[in-house]
Structures are given as C-alpha cells and as structure tokens.
C-alpha cells in the first residue's frame, strides 16, 4: 500500500483512497516557511563566504610569516656574504697599492671579474682602475686588457667603472681607443659614453681616429636640458679641443655645429676650431658669445684662454667681448676678464 506523509505546520497528514488505500496527497507548504527557508539558505551561503575569506586571509598571513621566517635570514646571510666579499676586494686593492708587483694578489682580484654577482665585478673593476693612478707603469700591461674586456660586460655599472679605470692608466690605455669608440656608439644613454669621450681626449694622437665619432657625439640629444646631453656635448667638445689641431674636414664639421651649442660645449668646440684654424671668424665669434653670456661658462672660458697665444684670436671680435665681460655682475669674472683684456689690448697695440 502506498503511503505518503507531508509536514504542514509541524503535523503529518495522510490521504486515503476510496478503496481504503492510503495515497500521497499534494500539499501546499506554508509560504512563510518557504521564504524563511530561502532566507536561511542565503544567510548560510553568506556566512560560508565570509568564513572562506577569513580562512584565506589567515592562511595568507601564515604563508607570509613562514616565508619571512625562512627568507629573511637567508637574505641577511647572502647580504653579509656579499659585504664580506666586498671588504676582501678592498683589502686586496690595498695590498696591491702597497706592493703592485704582487702577482698572486692581482690574480685573486682578477677572479672577481668573472663573478656572477655584478656588484662584486663592479668593486673589482673599480679597485683595479684606482690602482692606475699610482701604478700604471707597473700594472698597466696586465690590467688594461682586463678593463677593456669589461667594456662589454652586461652590467652598466661594470662598464662605467671600466671606462673610468682606463682613464687612470693614461697612455697605457691607448689599446682601448677602438673599444672606447664602441662605447660611444653603443651605450649612448649611459654615463659610460661621455666618460669614454673624456678618456679618448686624454689619449693624445693615438685617439685621433676617434675624432669623427666625437664630432657625431656633439649632436647627442636627450630631454631638453638633460644632464646626459650636457655632459656628452661638453665631454666630446673638450676631447676635440685636446686632440686638435684637426684636419680641414674636422674643422669644417665643427663650424657647422658650434652655432647650435652653448655653454662649455660651445667653448671647447670654439677653441678646437681656433687651434685648428687660428683667427677663424666662426670660432672667435662663438668664443665671444660664451664670454658675454653671463653664466658660469664665461669664467671657464677666461681660465682656458689664459696662456693661449693671442695670435689664435681675431682681436677685433674678442676685445669688445672682453670689455663687456669686464663689467659683469660676477666679481670673479670681472677680475679675470680685466686681466685678459689688458693682455689682449697690449698685444693689439704692438
């Protein structure tokens, strides 16, 4: 016999057929019970979500705590290890400074040049470069090739200190002329580029092949007024001045660029022109413009022309500029310009 029960308001009810058999009767649940049950499910679901989020948050805290507990000592240990290695590099450098002929100590320092940690490579390159200031004659033949190789390092700081280090070895660094030109062209956005220009300018006639690249570097552009652009143009101009006199082609190239330059870059390019072609109108005019610009470049210009033969300049252009400069608001500039004016005036009167 079929039998069904239904719970309505807490009571079980049965239905009987005409044959005396019990059968299930569809019953309508109370609407309030349905709604109440639905709200209960919503509340139960919301509570589950809140509980889940709280558990996830707690788990995240536990993971972070465990991570810090494990990683921080490891990081501290690694940092301590690097610091110890840096101190060792400094000690090796000091020993070599006291005894530059100690090949065993030099080889220990050289080992750091291939260390996977760029900080240690940088420290080693810096130490080897600094030794050149006092011991270039003894260490130059061994160290310069090592520094040249680091010009192609994949770390910008290592390259930077390799360039600076080569600058400490003077003429011993002449084999670096071509690699330094590569730095000029390949790493234009880095400090190593204008540092390379500085080093090339100090290498004398051996670096004359770098003149075309140095002239191109005068066109270096960055954000308006950027330090990199200023440093690149100034360093390239100074290098060209040191390497002058230049050939006819180089001088012509500089004439076309000096009008677009300002400050110390303009000064050194103007002097390079005048050393290459004395009394050149374009060079003298550019120099006069620097002297009358009322900025710090005027003081630099006055120091630079002190001692340069008067015959390099067109006095008809330069004397009025020096006269104007002698009335500058800067006392230092007034004093220097008065001295130069007297010198040039005396020469013009002869």
Give a summary of the structure in a few sentences.
The protein is mainly α and 350 residues long. It has helices at residues 31-98, 103-110, 118-130, 132-150, 156-167, 177-186, 191-201, 211-217, 227-243, 248-258, 263-276, 281-291, 296-305, 315-325, 331-349, and strands spanning 6-8, 11-13, 15-16, 22-23. It has a domain at 261-350.
Largest sheet: 2 strands, antiparallel
Average pLDDT, all residues: 84
What is the chain-wise order of helices and strands? EEEEHHHHHHHHHHHHHHH
Shape: extended
So what's the oligomer here? single chain
Question: What is the alpha-carbon Rg in Å?
Answer: 40 Å
Tally of DSSP helical segments: 15
Determine the N-to-C terminus distance. Answer: 144 Å
- Low-pLDDT runs of 5+ residues are 1-20, 22-36
Spatial order of the strands in the main sheet?
Answer: 1-2
Derived structural class: mainly alpha
| Beta-strand residue fraction | under 5%
DSSP helix fraction: 55-70%
């Amino acid at each position: 016999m079929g039998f069904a029960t239904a719970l309505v308001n807490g009571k079980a009810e049965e239905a009987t057929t005409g044959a005396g058999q019990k059968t299930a009767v569809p019953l309508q649940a109370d609407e309030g019970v349905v709604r109440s049950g639905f709200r209960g499910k919503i509340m139960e679901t919301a509570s589950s979500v809140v509980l889940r989020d709280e558990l996830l948050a707690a788990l995240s805290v536990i993971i972070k705590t465990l991570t810090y507990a494990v990683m921080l000592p490891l990081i501290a240990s690694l940092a301590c290890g690097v610091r110890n290695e840096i101190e060792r590099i400094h000690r090796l450098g000091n020993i070599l400074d006291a005894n530059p002929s100690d090949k065993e100590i030099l080889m220990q320092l050289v080992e750091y040049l291939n260390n996977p940690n760029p900080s240690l490579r940088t420290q080693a390159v810096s130490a080897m470069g600094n030794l050149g200031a006092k011991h270039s004659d003894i260490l130059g033949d061994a160290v310069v090739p090592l520094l040249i190789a680091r010009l192609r390092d994949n770390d910008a700081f290592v390259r930077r200190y390799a360039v600076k280090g080569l600058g400490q070895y003077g003429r011993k660094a002449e084999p670096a002329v071509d690699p330094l030109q590569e730095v000029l062209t390949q790493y234009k956005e880095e400090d190593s580029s204008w540092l390379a220009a500085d080093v090339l300018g100090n290498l004398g006639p051996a670096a004359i092949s770098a003149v075309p690249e140095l002239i191109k570097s005068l066109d270096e552009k960055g954000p308006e007024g950027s330090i990199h652009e200023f440093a690149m143009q100034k360093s390239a101009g100074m290098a060209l001045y040191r390497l002058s006199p230049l050939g006819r082609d180089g001088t012509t190239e500089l004439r076309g660029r000096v009008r677009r330059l300002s400050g110390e870059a303009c000064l050194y390019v103007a002097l390079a022109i005048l050393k290459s072609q004395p009394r050149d109108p374009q060079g003298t005019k550019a120099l006069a413009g620097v002297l009358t610009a009322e900025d710090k470049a005027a003081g630099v210009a006055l120091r630079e022309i002190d001692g340069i033969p008067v015959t390099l300049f067109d006095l008809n252009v330069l004397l009025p500029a020096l006269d104007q400069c002698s009335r500058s608001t800067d006392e230092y500039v007034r004093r220097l310009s008065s001295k130069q004016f007297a010198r040039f005036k005396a020469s013009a009167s002869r």
